[in-house]
Amino acid sequence: MLEGNGRTELEKLGEFGLIDHIAASVTLQNPSSLIGIGDDAAVIGEGDRRTLVSTDMLVEGVHFDLGYVPLKHLGYKAIVVNLSDICAMNGRPEQVTVSIALSNRFPLEAIEELYSGILMACEKYKVDLVGGDTTSSTSGLVISVTVIGTVAPQDMVLRSGARPTDLICVSGDLGAAYLGLQILEREKRIFVENPSIQPDLTGHDYILERQLKPEARTDIIDMLRQEGVIPTSMIDISDGLSSELMHICKQSNVGCRVYTERIPIDAATGLAAEELHLDVLTCALNGGEDYELLFTASIRAHDRIKDNPAMHIIGHVTESSDGVNLVSGGSLIPLKAQGWRHL
Amino acid sequence: MLEGNGRTELEKLGEFGLIDHIAASVTLQNPSSLIGIGDDAAVIGEGDRRTLVSTDMLVEGVHFDLGYVPLKHLGYKAIVVNLSDICAMNGRPEQVTVSIALSNRFPLEAIEELYSGILMACEKYKVDLVGGDTTSSTSGLVISVTVIGTVAPQDMVLRSGARPTDLICVSGDLGAAYLGLQILEREKRIFVENPSIQPDLTGHDYILERQLKPEARTDIIDMLRQEGVIPTSMIDISDGLSSELMHICKQSNVGCRVYTERIPIDAATGLAAEELHLDVLTCALNGGEDYELLFTASIRAHDRIKDNPAMHIIGHVTESSDGVNLVSGGSLIPLKAQGWRHL
Fold it and tell me: Of the N and C termini of chain B, which has fewer Cβ atoms inside 10 Å?
C-alpha cells in the first residue's frame, strides 16, 4: 500500500482509482473464486456451474433525492441496477439480498413503499428476495443490494474479450436517464424558490421514466441467446457510454471507433436537451444511468444484429494503438472517460 | 401489507418485527431459491450443490464508534460477523463482497487501514474479496458485507431442526464482548469530560479483544465435522444467548431448559462485570456480539461433545409446551428475548 503517513485525498484518486488501488492488494486463494474485482460481477464456481455475484450501494443525497424520487421507484431501481450487472455477464439473475439503513424519521408505511418497489422488480424479473439486513441510520437512507445469478461457463461474457474488427453494439437508446434527472432537478429548484408553483413535467414522460424506473435488459440477453450470438465482451451502461467504452478497451487491450451519428438517441431526449440548452451527444456519452448494454460481437454476427430494432451497431473494435475514438463528420476525436465521480 | 394511511413507528415493530413483516410478503419463485429470509444465511442451489449467502450492514454511530474503534479492527470485525453466519449453517465461507459509503473526511490512508483489516480477516479465514462498491456518503461510514459459502446438502444445519431431548451447546464463553464495549464507553465518557486523562484499559485485554476483534468459529465447525457430529440446529450468537435461544425454539417449535450455572463465562468477564457493577449473567444472556455458536445435537453425541473444552453443554431441548426457560438454583425462569433493538 502507500508509503509514509501523509494524507491522500480521495478526490485525487476517484472511484475507479480507489477500486484499482484496493484490487491491487487482493489475491484470490480459493479455487472457486474464478473472477474477482474488475468486471460487472464476480464469478464463483467449480466444474460446470458458475455463480455470478454483484453488489451496489445507494446512498441518500448521493444517488437519490427523496425530494423527487418516490420510495417505490427507488426500491424498483435499486434492484434493477443490480440485475443489469448480471445481464452484462450474459447471465440470468435469480436471487437478491437487500440491506437497508434508515432513520426513525421513516414510518413503517415508507418502508413498505420501498419494499413494494423492490418486490415489484423481483416479480417482474423473476428473482427472489432471499435475505438482507435492516438497521437504523443516524442520518440518511442507505440501500445495499447484492444479486446472485447463474450462467453456463461457455456463455459467460467478460469485459476483456473484445478483439479488433469486432462490432460495437448498444441496446436501446442513451442519454434519456440523465436528461430526466436534469428536468427533476430543474423543477426542484423552481419549487424551492417558489413552493406555490407546481412542477411542470409535461411532455417528459419518457425521460422521467428512464430516470425513475429504469429496466434491466434481460430481454436483450434472451434475444442474443435466441440468435445464437455470444458477445465477445459486454458491460452495462451505468456511468455513461464513454466510460464503459474505456473499460472495455482497457480490459480487452484494444482500441475502438464509435460513429457519433450511430449512437441511438430518442427524439424525446433530443427535445429535452434542446429545452435545457444541453448538448444531447454529451448527455448520451457521459450521462449514465441508462442501464443499456454495450457489447462487442464478431462481425460474423452482423446480419443477426443489424435487423434487430433493440440493438444498434455503433462502431468497431480496432488495435490498441488506434486509441479509443469517436468518429464525427469524418474526423477522429480521442475519447476521455468522465465516468461517475461521486467521490 | 398494512391497512389505511396511518403512520406506524418502527420502534413499535422492532428489528425482528420488521423482518417478519417483510418476509411475510415474499414468495420464492426460483427452484434454486431453497431457503430465504429467516435463517442465518439464504440457501441457493440445485442438485448436490448448496451456496450460502448472508449479508450485514454496519453503520457508524449505530454499530461502531470511530472514537474508540480503530479502522483496521472495524474492517476485520465486519468480515468476521458475516463469516460467523456461514458457520451457523455448518458451512464454509469462501468469498465476500464489501461495499463502503464514506465521506471525504476520510483520506485514502484511512480506507487503507479499513481494508488492511478486511484483508487480514480474509487471509486468516481463507476467503476471497471478490467485489464490492465504493461510494461517497453525506455523513458517516457505512459498510455492507455479503459472504458466500458452501455446504454439502447433508451437512447443512438450519435453526429449525432442534428436537426434544437434544443437548443445547454453546462454544467458547459469553458476555465478554458486551463488557468490553462497556469499558470502552466508560473510558470515552471520562475522556470527553477531561481529555487530559489517559484511558485506563489495563487488565481488560481479553474482553476488549472480544469486542474489537471477534473471531468466527470455523474451528468449531471443523471439530464437529471431525467428531462426526452434525448439529440438529445452529445459530450464531450476535444478539445474545436469550435472543438466539428464542429463535431456535420458535423456529424448531420446541421449548428448552438452560442451566445458568453451565453458561460459560470467562473469569476476566466476571471481574469486569464486578468493576462496572453489572450482573454478569445478564451480560452473558443479553449482551450479544460474542459470535459464538449455539447449537443443538442428539444426546447420542454427548460423549463426543462433553470432553471438548471449546464446547459446553448448557441444557436440553424440551417440548414446546414447556416454554423457553432458564433453570437457576432449582427454579424455572421463563426467558424473554431482549435481542438487539437498534431501531
Answer: N
